[in-house]
Write a structure and sequence with these properties.
single chain; 465 residues; alpha+beta; Beta Polymerase, domain 2; Alpha-Beta Plaits; four-stranded antiparallel sheet; 42% helix; globular
């Protein structure tokens, strides 16, 4: 297909229909009316507003979401505001026929699904720019900024960018993804003009990248000094001290750059279609053959807000990775997965499942007075010592070499930096290296099986087989 044909068809995929728009509008109107009733007698509430992509008309088909904000007087204490929004949100979503769920970002909010539309009831303070009392206070100004500046037709350019990023697995600023937020995609389209200009520029990005739409800073150097060690810096037009792209990891940024290069070389609708595979068990076994894996599988006892849970999983994944490397294993890759209600999985690919029976231990340089103490300490307990260069060395026999047993020992002795909230669950988790058993366990769980397939394939969704 030619580029023009790909973009035309991609827009058909990502652009909501009139029926989609009508459904979203009905849910929004209903929720706003319910919230106005629920807040009419609540002290400190100044108003209700629709924010986010629904307000800006930049939402994409299949992601029907409505962010409804309750504006509070700035004199209401933070804990009181949080308590009130939880109480109001739960009542409102239940009245609309949804099941409310407590969520966390900078502070708690309430989420529910109404007629297929995800509704978030969020609190913010009604304050002037730069007088922020909470992170959500900026959002109404973000909405206004985009609405005032997007030209007719640019909404669809944003939709194409969101659809592209979704298909490539880089859309979403939440901890699970650490990719591009909706607001960030809108700013990129404002900066570059349209979808293809974003892609063409991104294909040539070399981190760190700096975008300052309002020209708040005098130079790139000044921005880089302000926002250190951040691969993508997009200055928030409503707050010059904030990087809109701070959540974007170097990995997701690099994936977007690579996807942009590949799309320019070979435009295809596959970039806009998230690959939802139903892998066959035999294919997964074939993919895993001859490779070494370690997995930790456990169940939650108490449901956690997704961002909290993903944060704990990522921290634990990194802690386990470091512990195994400290023990002498080489960790090639690692990953986390959860259904966000019950099951959690951490998986790592290693160079080996068993360490050598012996390990070399470096002693002091021979000119130090401690050399004789070192010789006495290891005499009869190790092979050596011998002199190599200017140091002493011995060869120590390991007490244990098996990866599963070693990790369990480290966990029992509290020598692994895992999230406090998951510590008892991981200590009692199923820890195994037989990945065929994990594949069998996941056979009736398509999302889990899809994650395992993705991990075994070890490549982003936009790179074809």
């Amino acid at each position: 297909m030619k580029l023009e044909e790909v973009l035309s068809e991609a827009l058909r995929i990502v652009k909501p229909t009139k029926a989609d728009e009508s459904l979203l509008k009905n849910v929004v109107d209903r929720m706003k009316n319910i919230l106005k009733e629920e807040t009419s007698r609540v002290e400190g509430v100044l108003g209700i507003s629709l924010e986010g992509s629904a307000a800006k008309n930049t939402w994409i088909k299949g992601r029907e979401e409505a962010d409804i904000f309750i504006h509070f007087d700035k004199n209401i204490p933070r804990d009181e505001m949080e308590r009130k929004v939880i109480e109001i949100g739960f009542k409102a979503i239940e009245r609309a026929g949804g099941k409310p769920r407590l969520m966390y970002a900078d502070h708690p909010y309430v989420e529910g699904v109404i007629n297929g539309v995800t509704v978030d009831v969020v609190a913010c303070y009604d304050v002037e720019p730069l007088n922020w009392l909470s992170a959500t206070d900026r959002t109404p100004y973000h909405t206004r900024y985009i609405i005032e500046r997007l030209k007719p037709g640019q909404e669809d350019q944003v939709r194409l960018l969101k659809g592209f990023m979704t298909g490539c697995g880089v859309y979403g600023a939440e901890i699970k993804v650490r990719g591009f937020s909706g607001y960030l995609t809108e700013l990129l389209v404002l900066n570059y003009g349209d979808f293809m200009n974003v892609i063409k520029n991104a294909a040539n990005w070399r981190p760190p990248i700096v975008i300052d739409l309002e020209g708040y800073y005098r130079s790139t150097k000044e921005v880089l000094e302000m926002f250190r060690n951040q691969p993508l810096i997009v200055i928030d037009p409503v707050d010059m001290g904030r990087n809109v792209a701070s959540a974007v990891s170097l990995t997701k940024l690099s994936e977007f750059i690579l996807a942009s290069k590949m799309f320019i070389s070979n435009p295809s609708l596959n970039f806009f279609k998230p690959q939802i595979e139903k892998p066959a068990i035999k294919d997964l076994r074939s993919l895993s053959a001859g490779r070494n894996f370690l997995y930790i599988l456990f169940k939650l006892e108490v449901e956690r807000p997704p961002d909290v849970l993903w944060g704990e999983l990522k921290k634990s994944e990194e802690g386990i990775r470091r512990a195994l490397e400290r023990l002498g294993f080489k960790v090639y890759r690692s990953g986390s997965w959860t259904d966000e209600t019950e099951l959690c999985l951490l998986i790592l690919e290693l160079d080996t499942l068993k360490l050598p029976n012996f390990t070399i231990h470096k002693g002091p340089p021979i000119h130090l007075n401690t050399v004789e103490d070192f010789i006495k300490k290891w005499s009869g307990k190790a092979i050596g010592p011998w002199v190599q260069g200017d140091r002493l060395y011995v060869l120590k026999k390991r007490d244990e070499t098996d990866v599963v047993k070693l990790l369990k020992q480290e966990l029992d002795f509290n020598r692994v930096a895992i999230a406090k909230g998951l510590t008892p669950l991981i200590r009692s988790a199923k820890i195994d290296h037989r990945v065929d058993r994990l594949i069998e366990y996941a056979a009736d769980n398509p999302p889990m099986l899809s994650f395992i397939n993705s991990f075994l394939k070890a490549k982003p969704p936009f790179i074809p087989d």
